[in-house]
Design goal:
The protein contains five helices and five strands. By secondary structure, the protein is an alpha/beta fold. The chain has one domain: 3-Layer(aba) Sandwich (Rossmann fold), CATH 3.40.50. The protein is globular and about 60 Å long.
Length: 153
């Protein structure tokens, strides 16, 4: 596992993902690594209706979501990441767990994934699944999970 040169930190712009980003930033500085931020825009479900043409364009909406995510990543870099850290940002769309794993293994030679957990259980977990759980189960590289709870400093 050592040395760690490339750290991937997926974010969905939630508070728990910011906690994971904080940990990833500390590790990046400690190891002199590079940080890769990733946001995955989930696909917009398409519903077929027999009511005629619609003014809603799914492709345009998807593009707007991606552009908005890029702006959020830029803001995140300015507000939550030390200037000492070399950061690379990617916005993509698709299944979040699959895209995280693809980015880690095929695109950037990632040594460590730092990802937030949400602690969902019961019907919510069964219905929605867990991106973090799937990444942990399927990742060929080490995964550090970070609780969404704020740490006492």
């Amino acid at each position: 596992m050592l040395p760690i040169k490339n750290i991937l930190c997926p974010t969905d712009f939630s508070d728990p993902s910011y906690e994971a980003l904080s940990v990833a930033g500390e590790l990046t500085i400690h190891f002199g690594a590079e940080l890769y931020l990733l946001h995955v825009v989930a696909p917009v479900p398409q519903v077929v209706a027999n009511v005629g043409p619609s003014a809603f364009n799914i492709n345009t909406y998807q593009l707007e979501l991606e552009n908005d995510a890029k702006k959020h990543l830029d803001d995140l870099i300015k507000t939550k990441i030390s200037n000492e850290i070399s950061v690379h940002c990617t916005v993509t769309h698709g299944n979040p767990a699959e895209k995280i794993l693809q980015t880690a293994t095929k695109k950037h030679n990632i040594d460590l994934i730092v990802i937030a957990t949400y602690g969902k259980s019961g019907w919510r977990h069964t219905l929605f699944g867990s991106v973090a759980e799937r990444v942990v189960r399927l990742s060929p590289v080490p995964v550090l999970t970070v609780s969404g709870k704020k740490r006492e400093k």
